[in-house]
Amino acid sequence: MRLKEELHFGEFVALMAVMVSLVALSIDAMLPALPHIGRDLNVPNPNDPQLVVTALFFGLAAGQTLYGPLSDSIGRKPAIYIGLVLFVAGCLMSMLAENFTVMLWGRVLQGFGVAAPRVVTLALVRDLYEGNAMARVMSFVMSVFILVPTIAPALGQSILLVADWRTIFGVFLCLAVVIFTWFAIRQKETLTPERRVPFSVKKLIAAVGEVCRNRTALGYTVAAGLIFGAFVGYLSSAQQIFQGQYNLGKLFPVYFGVLALAIGSASVFNGRMVMKWGMRWLSYRSLSVLSVLSILAFVVAYVLQGNPSLWLLMVYLLVAFFCTGIMFGNLNALAMEPLGHIAGVGAAVVGSLSTFISVPLGVYVGASYDGTVLPLIAGFAVLCTASLFVMIWIERGA
Fold first, then answer.
1. What would you report as the CA-atom Rg of the chain, rounded to the nearest whole angstrom?
2. Which domains does the chain have, with CATH numbers?
3. What's the distance, Cα to Cα, between the start and end of the chain in Å?
4. Is the whole model's pTM more than 0.85, yes or no?
């Protein structure tokens, strides 16, 4: 294979999908390993291993702001190279960690590194395609991205059957090396030198200021952060709920995968219906349903002392994640509506701010786990209701 040989469409889509999916894989494949990490690294609080999940989000939030403008300045390929190298360094750091603090810093570095392929891939696709052609590429890429959370915990569980949790980081490392090599050999640079823009901290600061001053941009960024905060709380405590509270053992990846499919099916549904009903209508109805449902679910769970039957919990979570899946894309798109003139840096700021909002909230929800599902459902009820009020505030102002 020669460097200048054009990639076939199928290979290009596969490469982009693998790079985007590295984020989800890095999060979800670790879930079955959390109790093993806590035990081996002598973590005293049983809720603290959740930080292995949320630490990656902190790095991801910081990286999202940097890599977009950096790729506009030095090119798409060098930006992705830097990110993948940092991700590999983070994997090594976590894999060799002898204490929990080093483990967490390794996860932050992984998140900071993996932000590059996550963010720059979209710009790379936009360099080569536009309009319906770009939509076609991204639909295929996102189809793969949606499937990854359904299989990632099973991958982590399978590795634990034959090796220890450190091997999972070794798998991440090897995958990153394969992606780096594949990308370096087969993908050409898509941003020519004459189209590059000097990196500017002033532009980043100006974009942050513009988002904060714009009622619509700021409001929907906050709304997205609140919703994602509840979801991060679920990711943090899912292993304890399913494997600890409900004693599912090795079946945990199956239940996790089923719930991930609810989000995937919602994305497909939203893609078909958004042109008919609009982003605001779909988001408002989904948020209203989720808020009311979560309040009712909390009352039922409280009556049942925080231990509803597994099927009842699954029904609630399936509906909740279907509603969440509809809002994930729509709220970010609504936040971006007034930022068309600074689309690239605006998207980076919106993504970073919403993640910075969501992570502390998710950490709090996860750390509140007390052997019942009450903290999780309460997190969804409070944060979704708050997000609903934010959306009402935005639209009344508009």
1. 21
2. 7-189 (1.20.1250.20), 200-398 (1.20.1250.20)
3. 54
4. yes
